[in-house]
Amino acid sequence: MTKCVLDSSVIIKGLFQPSPSIPSPILERELDTHKKCEYILKLVEILPVEVSIPKSCIVEVAAVTRRLIDMKTSQIIATRLFSSCTLIGEEELFTAAWTLATTQGCSGFDAYFISLAFLHNIPLLTDDIGMHTHALKKGIRSLLIRETSIPDIERLLFRDVPAQNNG
User: Which terminal Cβ of the chain has fewer Cβ within 10 Å, N or C?
Assistant: First the structure.
C-alpha cells in the first residue's frame, strides 16, 4: 500500500478555491494548485493510499476551515480527517520535531509533518515552500504541489496499486 503525509496546505487548497481577489498571475497558479490538490484528495479516497497526518493537522484544518465556512461544515471536515487518516500523536513526533526545529530552524508546525515523513520513511505532499525546502534538507521525498505535474503525483500515489485485469 502506498503511504504519504499530506500537509494541511494540500487539504485546505483541495477543499477551497482561491479567492478571486488574488492578483492575476498568482491566481492562475493557485487555481492550478487547487485543481491538483482536489485531485489528490479524490485519489487518496479511491486508491489504497494510507494518509498519515500529525494530530495537530486536524486542529489547523478545523481553524482554517472555520474561518472560511460555517462551524458545522468545519466540524464535519475535521471529523472526516479523524476517520480517513492515520493520526500520529505528539508523543511519537516530539523529539524528532524538536531536533529538526533546533537544527534547521523550520517552524514548529512544519517540523511535525517533516518528522512524521522522516520517521515513517514516506513522502510528504505540501504546497508550503518552506516546509518543502526543510523536508528536502532532511532527505525526505517531498512534492511541492504547485511545481509538480499531475503525472508525477500519480506516479507517487499509484506506486503500489496493482494493475487492473481487464481481460
Answer: C
Distances (CA, A) of 55 to 28, 78, 135, 165: 32, 11, 19, 38
Q: What pLDDT does residue 62 have?
A: 94
Please say whether the beta carbons of 72 and 105 come within 8 A: no
Given a contact cutoff of 8 angstroms between Cβ atoms, the answer to whether 17 and 135 are in contact is no
Q: What is the predicted pLDDT for the residue at 159?
A: 76
Name residue, grid cell 485543481.
Answer: 35
Whether 45 contacts 11, CB under 8 Å: no
- pTM flag (> 0.85): yes
From the candidate CATH numbers 3.40.50.1010, 3.40.50.300, 3.30.70.260, 3.30.200.20, the one assigned to the domain spanning 2-157: 3.40.50.1010
pLDDT by 10-residue block (mean), the chain, 167 residues: 95 96 94 98 93 96 94 93 94 97 95 98 97 98 97 86 48
Q: Where are the domains of the chain?
A: 2-157
The CA angle 36-42-43, to the nearest 5 degrees, is 85
pLDDT at 18: 95
Exposure string over 35-64, b if 16+ CB within 10 A, otherwise e: ebbbbbbebbeebebebbbbbbbbebbbeb
